Amino acid sequence: MSSHASDPPAMKAAPGNRRVVVIGGGPAGLMAAEVARAAGLEVDVHEAKGSVGRKFLIAGKGGLNLTHSEPMPAFVRRFRERSDEVGGWLREFDADALREWARGLGVETFVGSSGRVFPSDLKAAPLLRGWVRRLRESGVRFHVHHRWLGWNGDTLRFATPGGEGDVHADAVVIALGGGSWPQLGSDGAWQSLLIERGIDVAPLQPANCGFDIDWSGHLASRHAGAPLKPVVAHWRDASGREHHLQGECVISADGIEGSLVYALSAELREAIARDGHATLQLDLAPGRNLERLQKELAKPRGHRSISEHLRRQVGIEGVKAALLYEVLDKSQLDDPATLARTIHRLPLALKRPRPLAEAISSAGGVRLEAMNEVLMLKTRPGTFCAGEMLDWEAPTGGYLLSACFASGHRAGKGAVAWLKASMTA
Ligand SMILES: Cc1cc2nc3c(=O)[nH]c(=O)nc-3n(C[C@H](O)[C@H](O)[C@H](O)COP(=O)(O)OP(=O)(O)OC[C@H]3O[C@@H](n4cnc5c(N)ncnc54)[C@H](O)[C@@H]3O)c2cc1C
Prior knowledge:
Elements: E1 19-23, H1 27-38, E2 42-47, H2 54-61, E3 67-68, H3 72-77, H4 83-92, H5 95-104, E4 109-111, E5 116-119, H6 125-138, E6 141-144, E7 147-152, E8 155-160, E9 163-167, E10 171-174, H7 190-195, E11 201-207, E12 211-212, H8 217-223, E13 227-236, E14 242-251, E15 255-257, H9 259-275, E16 278-283, H10 290-297, H11 306-314, H12 318-327, H13 330-333, H14 336-344, E17 346-350, E18 361-366, E19 383-385, H15 399-424
Parallel strand pairs: 1-2, 1-10, 2-6, 10-19
Antiparallel strand pairs: 3-5, 4-5, 7-8, 8-9, 11-18, 12-15, 13-14, 13-16, 14-15, 16-17
Helix pairs in contact: 1-15, 4-15, 10-14
The structure holds flavin-adenine dinucleotide.
Flavin-adenine dinucleotide binds next to helix 1, strand 2, helix 2, strand 7 and helix 15.
């Protein structure tokens, strides 16, 4: 039988009972554990929380977008300036390998209309349950409520329910996640542990996040939670080039969020860091060009209110109308040309990204330059890093989990190769 990257792992002879300690039981850590155990190594997974994969389970609440079906060149471009490096990991463990891996756990996947890939039951729990069972059966040992505190000389220090203790490892894979949704375990506290050991870490920042806007009290109280759809976002990149994207967003009490904003969040966050602010323009009436809007709004409105005129002539009402009242004064609202221009390009002044804790994912993390190509820290031979704690970012669409699995796969293989090499050295 031929073997594939995503086949259930076949046990091989143990290379001298060498032990890999995996710290962090998210998708990246568990994938590294699976690869190392399949190569015959002793594997211990240490997890701070009482169970593994909590963020993976939450991802399941949104249907678990496991990966994306688009061709590899487009797929790797999602990783922006890190597309070369992440592309290297993904070519070893790509979307097809991930789908086969899920199938190996009895979970079929399907491609949705957007090209995104989901488990057929849209759930994460059966996949995680089956995976943890298979790992346990293969001999991987799990240690929950074990919080890594850093190094004590060459050993690893953990806080455990029985007190603090040291753990020896022949190789270590650290996969502690980013800093979003810290209640699920990945709280970014590892940053100081690595920085104090001289490891180069780019500060964690919110990615796939909402942005603050200074709404009036009226808009915030009346329209928070209102979906804005469909709209087309227009923005300029750092070189001044204009871009646009159609989608949906949601007005929040503090600003704006939702899939369209998340998709632009890296560029918007960088613009705010560079210029102190960012302007996002929304076309509130996609499908109607400026000329048509002007013509329709210039029709006499008689005794009808502006709201009624907007609704009848151009189909603008509810939260879309409220946004026009938010940015225009009375005389501007009375001027059809200004009204049309604003519907066509509603300017929203974004102040800052929402806090990291609320974001879907993190940007920043261990700089890829601090590691070699198998994700081993250059300054700590035998220690590998994987997952969202590495310095890459991507939009939602299954890219996050894909890169976490692929980097865990790469780090696990790296640990195996390093231990084998150190035995023959
Ligand atoms: C609401 C939400 C929905 C999402 N939906 C999707 C989606 O549909 N598709 C997608 O691709 N991505 C999605 N993501 C992102 C995805 O879940 C993450 O990118 C992914 O889980 C990161 O995997 P990881 O293994 O790197 O880290 P994590 O999954 O964060 O796991 C890290 C683990 O390390 C443990 N840990 C942290 N510190 C320590 C310590 N000191 N000692 C021991 N253990 C520690 C944590 O408890 C945690 O279990 C979503 C994220 C959120 C918040």
